[in-house]
Amino acid sequence: MHPDDTRRIVLFDFDGTLTRRDSLFPFLRHTLGTPEFLRRLPSCLPALTGLALKRLSNQDAKEAVLTRMLGGETLAHLQAKGREFADRRLDRLVRPAGMRALQAHQAAGHDCVLVSASLDVWLQPWAERHGIKGVVSSRLAVDDAGRVTGRLDGTNCRGAAKPAAIAAWLATLDPETPVDLVAAYGDSAADQPMLDLARSGYRLRRGRFHRVHGPAGEGIPE
Fold this sequence. Notes:
The chain is of the alpha/beta class.
């Protein structure tokens, strides 16, 4: 196969990397409306406190919040709300430095992929609108009636769970096409397992991305 056929892929964390803050609670507020969101929020405080005190894992705390906020909703309804959120609200949260890096890689012909603990119900439509080629993320579990339970379908796509999730996504690609993981971008130590997969890893520090390993990107500014 000609070397030009290689698929060059760049991995991006989402919350804190392409956005200035976490996107879960803004999505919940958009979906429920502010009065209902605020009514349910106190019931989430034990889980959030347990997470802050490291008595609960990220997945356990997240599932507790999702159960209290979204349990019983239909997946179809949340997908519709996720598209609304992606189209109307999510761009307000974007981080300019992250979007510049994303767009620079896209201009270089690289396939950009989101790898995030956030949920596909809003990441997928946002990715489609911004020309992103793939989404590797957490997903909501549903019961036999198509209603959300509050649990996740599989592992929360965060930290050490990201390499396995990325490997599973890569396994869905055409095996005849070579893949080069050109770069990966994150904003915290939890992203390091993902950064280690790529030839160049970049981490956000003081509002700018700094290369933490590997050669400089192909024409991508530091």
